[in-house]
């Protein structure tokens, strides 16, 4: 959750997601307090000098289409995209936009009905220019958009809504719902609360949500699942809720993480048998991190205890004006149920790591670095698996610049379940600059179908960035 106006942020320089207390009071992507590394035992532990197994780069790289800019307002940052399985030429994308109310964040969503060639744009439901929800509340800010579409054309847009004054800390997690058979505009009375904290003096904050829908052929098809971080003061917990009636009502949230953990950055996905996976990052002292996984085989009524799925690794620490993180991205193959996870870690530079499980999450491979150059920093990756089981990945990349303010988007794919990957390909036609921006987003997105991937990114964040996309074949 970014709790700051663009105008104010233009005067700030945040060296990382783990900003000082003064800056954290303005930038509201909450940071958990850290716990001791000694609380988790894991045989493999990365250090800054560790050497990871090498990825086999083989086959042909993507053919990159032209870059499209779906929006006309700026600045923008933090985006996601989904494809409609019933008509793969239909895309829904969303991004945090800072063009309204003197630079206050407001989610903008965009539709394409011709495979991403042209787009139509709109803001979330507004009253008097401010975000409005079905419970009658009007909010000065909303952010962290994530989208998904089910097999029957129900589209879901998850968002955080919040206040930002010293006397009002009310906030909540909502999901907007529409059916493509009835239109393409999200409306106020279909922006449904999942969990809302209305007390202005609350110390409870909902943050960093993710959403997924069950597109299987099982009896749970159509269920919608949300995971997020629930802060109570300085303590953080991963929560989960589900809807079995197309987002009209949501179950009482349940705790996913251990109460002893300090957590953020969850991601939820569904396997081909309807099983649910949630991954998240645990924070330790000395800038150490580790990815964890929970699983449900009863449509989200219960979950297994969290298990570590990565080595302990170093958080990103390279120099940049924008904040950054190592949160994981999750995709599950609809063909064989393999679980694929991407995240960035830090050795001499920041690199994107790939791990997978082919046994339902019981074990994971050692991390493989997806980057084919020692140059630059690679961060905030996204992953998708298409209907044929092809793995598609993308990430922010600084290899073409002299410092971290010069960025591109790069991508790679695997045709053999992650045994090998295609050479890294530059997606952006030219590098873009973050300037002195404190924010370019905390994640990016990618979706795919029939071998074609469609990533989304922003070309600069607070430095006049806008939503951009292309097709990769």
Task: Describe it.
By secondary structure, this protein is an all-beta fold. The chain has one domain: Neuraminidase, CATH 2.120.10.10. Helix content is 2%, strand content 41%. The chain has two helices and 31 strands. A hairpin with an 8-residue loop joins strand 30 (452-458) and strand 31 (467-469). The longest helix is centred in the first third of the chain and has 4 residues, at 6-9. The protein is globular and about 55 Å long.
TL;DR of this structure?
The chain has 473 residues and is an all-beta fold. It contains 2 helices and 31 strands.
The CATH architecture name reads: 6 Propeller
Number of domains: 1
CATH top level class name: Mainly Beta
CATH topology: Neuraminidase
Our measurement of the CA-to-CA distance between the termini, rounded to an integer number of angstroms, reads 33 Å
Name some characteristics of this structure.
single chain; 473 residues; mainly beta; Neuraminidase; five-stranded antiparallel β-sheet; globular
Which helices and strands appear, and what pairs or packs with what?
Elements: H1 6-9, H2 21-24, E1 76-83, E2 91-100, E3 104-112, E4 120-123, E5 126-127, E6 130-131, E7 141-149, E8 154-162, E9 171-179, E10 191-197, E11 204-213, E12 224-232, E13 235-243, E14 254-255, E15 263-270, E16 276-284, E17 288-296, E18 307-308, E19 313-314, E20 329-332, E21 339-346, E22 350-357, E23 368-369, E24 378-385, E25 391-397, E26 406-414, E27 425-426, E28 432-433, E29 445-449, E30 452-458, E31 467-469
Antiparallel strand pairs: 1-2, 2-3, 3-4, 5-6, 7-8, 8-9, 9-10, 11-12, 12-13, 13-14, 15-16, 16-17, 17-18, 17-19, 20-21, 21-22, 22-23, 24-25, 25-26, 26-27, 26-28, 29-30, 30-31
